[in-house]
Amino acid sequence: MVEAGARRDQLVELTADFTRLSEVAVLAGTVVKHYPALDLLVNYAAVMAPERCTLTDDGSEVSLQVNFLAGHLLAKLLRAPLSAAGNARIVNVSSSLHRTASMNWSDPHRVKKYSRVAAYAQSQLALTMATAEMAPAGSGITAVSLNPGQCDTALLSLYGRVGAPAAEGAAAVVRLCLPDVELANGAYYDGGSVAPTAQVVQEERSQKRLAKLADQLVGRAA
User: Fold this and answer.
1) Coil, strand, or helix at residue 109?
2) Among 38, 89, 127, 217, which is most buried by a count of CB atoms within 10 Å?
3) Do 24 and 70 form a contact (C-beta atoms < 8 A)?
4) What is the DSSP code string of 63-100?
5) pTM of the full structure
């Protein structure tokens, strides 16, 4: 960021291990304490689901927690400063694989029948489906999700062997962060334009069901 022109004295580095929701909560608490107004939240963290089902200390499948639950918790705990900014936005970095996914409501951690691709895709479906709930009416927040494209990152093996430079994917994310770019609240973007989602993403009943499940899974950390 400094190389791109950002002033070093204006950068504040805060870290948290997203496999530990208590750390995510501490991170949010620090932000709320020092920044009463927050213009932007980008949920960009993602991990590939392991070969075998792996649960965090919080009891959640690791890709579901890192890719979705941590972002859900951040959006919940940072709602006050985001609302205070007046025109804040949340940008959730999702994936086109969400269209191939289904929510396993009875076994969201997929302990009984596990597939790393299915687990990862479910985490992206959950993040996309939860986007609208992160910006409730009257909050002053706009929330969107997007597919940054197939890029040459650690996640590439889930999609194929060839990917665009990671910088191109980052540029797609940055574009939606710019205040002069108009966004449709709750929409999913692909290639800079609003794109179709999995049908379940638009189902209000499923959105509410997911919000309730997510609140239960983040538990005491919230």
Assistant:
1) coil
2) 127
3) yes
4) HHIIIIIHHHHHHHHTHHHHHHHSSEEEEEE--GGGGG
5) 0.90
